[in-house]
Design a protein that fits this description.
Elements lengths: L7 E4 L2 H10 L8 H17 L3 E4 L4 H13 L9 E3 L3 E6 L2 E6 L3 H5 L3 E3 L1 H9 L6 H11 L4 H17 L3 E3 L1
Antiparallel strand pairs: 1-2, 3-7, 4-5, 5-6
Length: 170
């Protein structure tokens, strides 16, 4: 479950579910047997159950919407997640947003990229896995624009970020 400006329910693929569950579970690494048993249970849950990602502001209305969606089996279809790769830092310098590589990416990236406020917002959102539709909903909730323009601009930005090798698929 994630906070957001919009309400949305989405099914996760088994790989997405494994990733989400492992990131949100405490694993006692000092006890390898228990950690291994927990990992086995997490993977079994991800592979055999229905794991959903829920977005929305906490409210009684959204709780009722979630209950209705679960009872009706109306979760949205599985979608590919987008996420910013590690090794890049987003900074605001003198009223400008800059995407700067770190570590091994410095040599491959060859410089920083200036971004507008919308592109910077998208990269901030992509610190966590999101589908294209979830990202679009976040942009529409944050900026005053119509859906058609937002879709066109977001798709172009995603393609540019992929070409620059800033995104990873999950």
């Amino acid at each position: 479950m994630r906070r957001g400006a919009f309400f949305r329910v989405r099914a996760l693929s088994p790989a997405q579910a494994r990733s989400a569950l492992v990131k949100q579970t405490f694993l006692p690494m000092w006890d390898p047997e228990t950690a291994a048993a927990q990992m086995k249970n997490l993977f079994r849950l991800a592979d055999s159950g229905r794991v959903l990602r829920v977005f929305g502001p906490p409210s009684a209305e959204n709780a009722r919407r979630l209950q209705a969606a679960l009872e009706a089996g109306l979760e949205e279809k599985e979608e590919q997640d987008l996420k910013a790769k590690p090794g890049f830092v987003l900074r605001r310098v003198a009223e400008e947003y800059m995407l700067m590589p770190t570590g091994e990416n410095i040599a491959a990236f060859q410089g920083a990229v200036l971004l507008n406020s919308v592109s910077a917002f998208v990269l901030e959102q992509l610190q966590f896995p999101l589908s294209r539709e979830e990202l679009l909903c976040a942009v529409l909730a944050e900026f005053d624009t119509d859906r058609e323009t937002a879709e066109r601009d977001l798709d172009a930005l995603i393609e540019k970020l992929k070409k620059m090798d800033v995104l990873e698929g999950e």
